[in-house]
């Protein structure tokens, strides 16, 4: 049996919308053990629920052994300077924690640029806004970009936490251009994209994805050929540096745009796979 509890609900009067709860706790019970009233494990998820741009995004997910009860503290709202009593959770005891994932977001303002004569609203990297931006509706109809800056993962065992972190770099169109992974195997991925207008319909599809470790390329994927009318990827090349082998694939599509087949044109494999 799984039991759910929710804490710190928020209704936004300006948007006339319920923003959900800041915390959700789910506890799992084994009804065949004892009297079935002791939780075996619990997951506590914290969300943003005060800001229009960040609303609903996960802040932290903590998985623990057994159960935990919230602690009620006084919290000052920096927008209206009102203090209220809210629920929070104390995870200072590492012996009860299985894992913990934390996400860090940023809100950026926008700027307008011209690209081939067409105006674009793009992310302004020099205009990072506070996490309480536009709470209370004081900015009118202002727009903003929300990006995930980094994630942190901790897995706990008898010798202490095992940690890994990832950070992200973006271009002005909000596309990830680099991912840096630290912890365990350290590596970074670099991503290049097609121009935002040519070819059509593929502003978010990467042109090249490279994975590097110690400055050496380990994986490389390139979309070699694009249909200039539809923006469909027609050919993909993938380098596996472990065995210094490059595989090439041809993609064919139905008239309605659905994927029809993928052909591995590498000499070693020469496979053809159809999709129905």
Question: What's a quick, concise take on this entry?
Answer:
With 276 residues, this protein is mainly beta. It contains no helices and 18 strands. The protein has a 16-stranded antiparallel β-sheet that branches. Strands 5-6 form a two-stranded antiparallel sheet.
Description of the molecule:
This protein has strands spanning 2-12, 17-29, 39-47, 58-65, 71-77, 82-88, 97-115, 118-129, 145-157, 160-170, 176-182, 187-193, 206-213, 216-226, 233-240, 245-253, 259-264, 271-274. It has a 16-stranded antiparallel beta sheet that branches. The chain is globular. It has no helices and 18 strands. The model has no long low-confidence stretch (mean pLDDT 87). Strand 10 and strand 11 (176-182) form a beta hairpin.
Mean pLDDT equals 87
Which percent band covers the strand fraction?
over 45%
**What global shape is seen?**
globular
Main beta-sheet strand count, sense and barrel state: 16 strands, antiparallel
Give unreliable regions as ranges.
none
Helix content: under 10%
Q: What is Rg?
A: 24 Å
Write the layout of secondary structure elements.
Elements: E1 2-12, E2 17-29, E3 39-47, E4 58-65, E5 71-77, E6 82-88, E7 97-115, E8 118-129, E9 145-157, E10 160-170, E11 176-182, E12 187-193, E13 206-213, E14 216-226, E15 233-240, E16 245-253, E17 259-264, E18 271-274
Antiparallel strand pairs: 1-2, 2-3, 3-4, 4-7, 5-6, 7-8, 7-9, 9-10, 10-11, 11-12, 12-13, 13-14, 14-15, 15-16, 16-17, 17-18
């Amino acid at each position: 049996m799984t039991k759910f509890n929710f804490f710190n609900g928020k209704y936004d009067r300006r948007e006339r919308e319920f923003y959900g709860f800041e915390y959700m706790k789910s506890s799992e019970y084994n009804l065949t053990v004892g009297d079935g009233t002791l939780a075996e494990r619990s997951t506590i998820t914290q969300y943003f629920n005060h800001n229009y741009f960040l609303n609903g995004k996960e802040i932290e997910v903590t998985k623990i052994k057994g159960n935990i009860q919230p602690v009620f503290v006084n919290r000052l709202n920096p927008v209206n300077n009102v203090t209220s009593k809210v629920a929070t959770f104390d995870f200072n005891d590492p012996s009860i924690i299985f894992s913990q994932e934390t996400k860090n977001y940023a809100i950026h303002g926008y700027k307008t640029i011209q690209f081939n004569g067409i105006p674009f609203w793009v992310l302004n990297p020099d205009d990072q806004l506070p996490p309480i931006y536009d709470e209370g509706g004081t900015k009118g109809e202002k727009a903003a970009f929300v990006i995930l800056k980094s994630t942190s993962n901790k897995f706990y065992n008898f010798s202490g936490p095992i940690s890994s972190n990832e950070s992200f770099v973006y271009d002005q169109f909000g596309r990830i251009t680099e991912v840096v992974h630290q912890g365990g195997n350290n590596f970074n991925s670099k991503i290049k994209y097609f121009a935002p207008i040519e070819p059509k319909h593929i502003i978010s599809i990467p042109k090249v994805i490279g994975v590097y470790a110690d400055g050496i390329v380990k994986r490389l994927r390139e979309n070699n050929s694009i249909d200039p009318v539809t923006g469909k990827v027609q050919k993909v090349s993938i380098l596996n540096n472990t065995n210094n082998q490059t595989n090439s694939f041809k993609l064919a599509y139905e008239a309605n745009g659905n994927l029809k087949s993928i052909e591995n044109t590498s000499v070693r494999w020469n496979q053809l796979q159809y999709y129905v």
